[in-house]
Give the backbone structure.
Amino acid sequence: MDSEESDVETESNRINHFSPNKSDSMVVKSVSKNYGKFQAVRNISFGVKRGECFGVLGENGAGKTTMFKMITGSEDLTSGDILVNGNSVQKDIRTIYHDIGYCPQFDGLIDHLTGRETLKIVSRIRGINENIIDEQIDALSRLLFFEKHIDQQISGYSGGTKRKLSFAISIVGNPLIAFLDEPTTGVDPVSRRCLWNAIHMVREAGSSLVLTSHSMEECEALCNRLIIMVHGRITCLGSPMHLKQKYGAGYIVHIKLKHPIVEKSIRKLDRFMRIKFPECYLDSIHNNMIVYKIQTNQIKLSQLFGSIERSKDSLFIEDYSICQTSLERIFLSFVRKEKK
């Protein structure tokens, strides 16, 4: 077995020998989705534990939103099954609606209603006691810092306030599991932090959350575990720290060469890097910016800086920086690898 896929294989084995128990709020079991000959989702398996924030990373078209649509019953499964609290989306979708909340990628709000009216409708649909509905709405508006907008029409809301309301709708009644499809897209930094704090509080209250995002910072801040999806399949799985330790050993070196750049100066730099640091390889070249990946932690940062600094002038280096591998770099490496 490829060591890169061992975590995915282990999780798949756990799920496919699954018998319903209380450890997972949701189980995705050998699920595929085809549109004609196109495979949008390819035989994926994973479980979301109770009280866990589970991240789903992937570029546009990776299958994230399709997966959410299958979970919420908007799309049929081609094969496999999804269980929420032990109930199948193919057989018990009405029961599942009582256990889930959903914040869609695009706000599905009615502009002529107020925030309070919207949350009242959702609360009544969820069967919340009429006597405590207003109290819960006030608590949600305080949690998400949009109290002054709660009685205004949604048509006057900013994009950030609309996202807060969509998130509030998804957690009304403390669902067993909430699905958040890019919940902070288009949101300013202050509102983003507000949503992050609310997500932490929801998780601490016992709800599970499944989060899709293009923000690596967001996934590192919120997710206990995450998967990276490329072309409809899961390429890796684990906590952000685990993925960085497993796939992110070493350093990234960004080198900016002085203009004008000639092929000779690039070859000279490449020869220097490979002699000094045998475990490095050329990652990318963009104009005068050259990026190297050094795949070992055995080299000290002081050694790296010292070697480049001493040869800076002879190699026509204008500027350089060295950093440890980030979750974003790991994500990009998987995407590039799958596209080759």
